[in-house]
Amino acid sequence: xxxxxxxxxNKVTEKGKDVELRCDPxxxxxxxxxxxxxxxxxxxxxxxxxxxxxxxxxxxxxxxFSAERTGGSVSTLTIQxxxxxxxxxxxxxxxxxxxxxxxxxxxxxxVV
Amino acid sequence: SQKIEQNxxxxxxxxxxxxxxxxxxxxxxxxxxxxxxxxxxRGPVFLLLIRENExxxxxxxxxxxxxxxxxxxxxxxxxxxxxxxxxxLCALPAYSGAGSYQLTFGKGTKLSVIP
Lengths: 112, 115
What we know:
heterodimer, A: mainly beta, 4-stranded antiparallel β-sheet, globular, B: mainly beta, about 60% strand
């Protein structure tokens, strides 16, 4: 596809379960970001991948959160032992040169 | 600590008027600043980038200014239309402390253009 694709678009999970969120960036984009947006709030930085460099994980809120990017392309954000405060929209963005970020539609996560 | 502030959470203006949104930052010296538009239920969409050596940039009905002395960017929409109603976010590269610059966003200003 032409844009950033995220799946699933919606996810409802029970408290304590693990979830995996997927991001397919635009082909050839070396930079990939994950953000979290709670209702009515701004974008909270989570993690940043740039090429083959070690990821910048400084925004991950706890050790329950992890992310990987395989082959410099697809990325997966994993949240273990989900809590209700993890409910939010998780947005992925990719960029060819950091001058413009292209966002996906997001995954709306609801922890019940 | 580094901070980005978009002064108004919400702004209502009459159709046809010029909307002016403000983005202020502290403890940053960004090489550039970006503006995005976000509609409900969708991811942000890039609008404009302005570099530190540029005072002003225009794109159709949009105009952005960047004052590195005041540490402020202004975003103007002229001849506003109801279709311009959305949340507008400013973003700039901030040093994360982990060896890289990552794009940091303000909380946004929700613009409503009233017919």
